[in-house]
Write a structure and sequence with these properties.
- This protein is an alpha+beta fold.
- The chain folds into three domains: 105 residues, Ribosomal Protein S8, Chain: A, domain 1, CATH 3.30.1370; 61 residues, Orthogonal Bundle (Arc Repressor Mutant, subunit A), CATH 1.10.10.2330; 265 residues, BirA Bifunctional Protein, domain 2 (2-Layer Sandwich), CATH 3.30.930.10.
- It contains 19 helices and 15 strands.
- The strands form four sheets. It has a seven-stranded mixed sheet, sandwiched between helices. The protein has a three-stranded antiparallel sheet with strand order 1-6-2, sandwiched between helices. It has a three-stranded antiparallel sheet with strand order 3-5-4.
- The two termini are 49 Å apart.
- The protein binds phenylalanine (PHE).
- Phenylalanine binds next to strand 14 and strand 15.
- Its EC number is 6.1.1.20.
Length: 500
């Protein structure tokens, strides 16, 4: 039935009877109550055609268990029926029920109703019927309630059924409608817009116009949306800020090999510095601005050793250090920041720092479903007097706890710039195994002392990727669905905020 005929029917019935209740009407016409309510609401918008008042009433509905009992009988009846005339061993009887509720509840109810008895004369208890026939009152009452014969069920019985969770009270909202001041049997469709034609013909004078609804929600304006990676980045940033960390400036995708590798005590022959692993720039190929004194100390510690270290003992080359690369990790920025800190504290008291960065890095990887040549790193660095490995483990635990990851393990590893170094693992419930989630370590004296930091100052750091947590959070399996031209923009619009 169309809404128009339904509204005309309602008006006709209202003309015959002086008042109508939406719920009774829905039963009478076998039409969904929501549909009737919808039509009443639209009639209301025509002005004073009808008058409405909302009405609340209570009703009992059967729960799922209650519905099952209407079909199969109460648990106690099921138990009684399962006992054969000659009796059955109690353990066998109990095993015959698949539903634990039937076995436990049904058995004890059937006992207290005195429908069955346990015969303990032999060594195995036997259950026997005590009566030849039973009247399943619970099933009967539930049946009445499901047929709305609610008056046949007394208050005590209702409370008992409710306690057994077989029925539940629901509140039903309905409308009582009466004729309004401008009651009429047919409603003309109201116009929402005045058209040029109406003006030209003058027909607007006869038309009914719909009132403006100033309470309507506007159409949300089209606006910018954060990419999933940026939403997750925002959350990580929040965690660092809550822990008192300051953000490092990360606006330097092109970095010299000096800051990306040499300052971090990565030897010039290290495989990470190969063409296969790192993107080198062709234009401009080299950089000019490397601090000269500091570079001399870095050269010394690499090639001959210094500050109590024997170094690597190789011929360190300035040409190599000047080569520009796309930074391979954000630790290049951490090195710059620690060097700045060392300059700042010359002749002054040392200032402890807690720093973080979250930004893009580049590696010449073979591309697959989980690897791209560019990704994002999240990195934390702390420098203070007398820090230990225990401090690093503690802060990493606190950091991951804020992400909701409590189950952490550390495994020793190797980094040229940290000693000791540790990989972090977290237990993945879905994969049923420990997965690597990051890398960390205590920065080496060979890195910190040439910078000019006081010898009693230690620096700790840890890093992890942004992509993996984002893919897990938004259920994305292929990294190409997250970045690049295959990204589904609708996904970007629709994804909810990230709360870690
Ligand atoms: N730079 C390391 C990486 O790329 C992470 C790291 C940061 C390790 C700081 C130790 C200290 O995996």
């Amino acid at each position: 039935m169309s809404d128009k005929t339904l509204s005309e029917d309602i008006l006709r019935l209202l003309n015959e009877r002086s008042t109508i209740n939406s719920l009774s009407l829905s039963n009478e016409l076998s039409i969904d109550h929501q549909k009737i309510v919808g039509v009443i609401k639209s009639l209301q918008s025509f002005g004073d055609i009808i008058q409405c008042s909302q009405h609340e009433s209570k009703r009992f509905d059967l729960t799922r268990e209650g519905q099952q009992m209407v079909e199969n009988g109460s648990h106690e009846a099921v138990v009684w029926k399962a006992v054969p005339e000659e009796g059955i061993e109690q353990t066998l009887l109990m095993k015959s029920f698949t539903d634990a509720n039937v076995a436990k509840l049904g058995f004890s109810k059937a006992m207290s109703q005195k429908w069955i008895v346990i015969d303990k004369t032999s060594n195995k208890p036997i259950v026997k019927r005590k009566v030849d026939a039973i009247e399943d009152e619970v099933q009967l009452l539930l049946n009445r309630i499901s047929h709305m014969d609610i008056n046949e069920v007394n208050e005590q019985q209702k409370q008992d059924l409710k306690k057994r969770k077989l029925i539940q009270e629901v509140i039903v909202k309905s409308y009582d409608i009466e004729k309004g001041e401008n009651f009429s049997l047919n409603v003309e469709k109201q116009e929402t817009d005045i058209t040029g034609e109406m003006i030209a013909k003058g027909s607007w004078k006869e038309k009914q116009f719909k009132d403006y609804n100033f309470d309507a929600m506007g159409i949300p304006p089209e606006r910018g949306h954060l990419h999933p990676l940026l939403k997750v980045r925002q959350q990580f940033r929040q965690i660092f800020l809550e822990m008192g960390f300051t953000e490092m400036p990360t606006n330097r995708f092109v970095e010299s090999s000096f800051w990306n590798f040499d300052a971090l005590f990565v030897p010039q022959k290290h495989p990470a510095r190969d063409l296969q692993d790192t993107f080198f720039l062709s234009d401009p190929q080299t950089c000019n601005e490397v601090p000269v004194d500091y570079m001399a100390r870095v050269k010394q510690v690499h090639s001959c050793g210094d500050f109590g270290s024997q170094g690597y003992q190789y011929e360190w080359k300035t040409e190599e250090t000047r080569k520009n690369v796309l930074r391979t990790h954000t630790t290049a920025i951490s090195a710059r920041m620690l060097h700045d800190l060392a300059q700042e504290c010359k002749g002054k008291a040392f200032r402890p720092v807690k720093l973080f960065s979250i930004d893009r890095v580049f590696r010449n990887e073979s591309l697959d479903a989980t690897h791209l040549a560019e990704f994002h790193q999240i990195e934390g660095v702390i420098a203070d007097v007398g820090l230990t490995l225990g401090d690093l483990m503690g802060i990493i635990r606190e950091f991951f706890l804020k992400l909701g990851i409590g189950n952490l393990r550390f495994k020793p590893t190797y980094n040229p710039y940290t000693e000791p170094s540790m990989e972090m693992y977290s237990y993945h419930e879905g994969l049923n195994k420990w997965v690597e989630i990051g890398n960390s370590g205590v920065f080496r004296p060979e890195m910190l002392l040439p910078m000019g930091l006081p010898p009693n100052v230690n620096a700790l750091g840890w890093g992890l990727g942004l992509e993996r947590p984002t893919m897990i959070k938004y259920g994305i399996n292929n990294i190409r669905d997250l970045c690049g031209h295959k990204m589904d923009l609708q996904l970007v619009y629709d994804n909810p905020l990230c709360i870690l």
